[in-house]
């Protein structure tokens, strides 16, 4: 959400790279268009072209998110590059990112070094499944984003889901904050608050009650043990506390 808000504020493009185990340059930076290369070679062999093409030229390159961000230039406005859940990538790929985050350039065999037209604004997120290396963290400004206050989260819901009535918005936010006080394995975030509010609207709910909470807990909680803790008498208690 921070990256989306930043891109909207700058009036520029958001380019997202989702981190996962096994990601490499072909998924993150570039890869060659093998089908187009093969077609060019066959056309040259058939004599439809005077000379064999350079199949490792820029026209045969498929740009992935990192290269897209480096080459993006919208009248001097930088792209916003979101490196999401970077803690999930392998150590080797994290090391590969150092060149990009240090000098905003990448080396491509056969083409050379591609430098940023305009340096992108980079947002990195981590869920702390592992520690990022110091070399990478030295290239970043660290900022911890905590859960918003009751009133701040109510403002967020009011802006993002204005079709929900104020009473429902306040009940949902109050219930979510009550959940966060519990000893849960996976505490719901603002995204779950917004998703739940939208789900309740789709069910034509104007207010929370025990039945609808039990029916829609799966929107808010993603762990079976957490669901078990909340069911039963706990729901009534949480509903009583869900008042701003």
Any overview of this molecule?
It is a single chain. This protein starts with a helix and ends with a helix. Helix 7 packs across helix 8. The longest helix has 15 residues, at 166-180. It has a three-stranded parallel sheet with strand order 1-4-7. Strands 2-3 form a two-stranded antiparallel sheet. It has helices at 2-10, 25-28, 34-45, 65-71, 91-103, 134-137, 150-160, 166-180, 190-202, 210-220, 224-230, 233-241, and strands at residues 14-18, 30-32, 61-63, 80-84, 105-108, 112-115, 121-124. Helix content is 47%, strand content 11%. The chain has 244 residues and is mainly alpha-helical. 23% of the residues are buried. Strand 5 (105-108) and strand 6 form a beta hairpin. It is built from twelve helices and seven strands. It has two domains: 2-29 and 64-137, Rossmann fold, CATH 3.40.50.300; 150-241.
Secondary structure topology:
Elements: H1 2-10, E1 14-18, H2 25-28, E2 30-32, H3 34-45, E3 61-63, H4 65-71, E4 80-84, H5 91-103, E5 105-108, E6 112-115, E7 121-124, H6 134-137, H7 150-160, H8 166-180, H9 190-202, H10 210-220, H11 224-230, H12 233-241
Parallel strand pairs: 1-4, 4-7
Antiparallel strand pairs: 2-3, 5-6
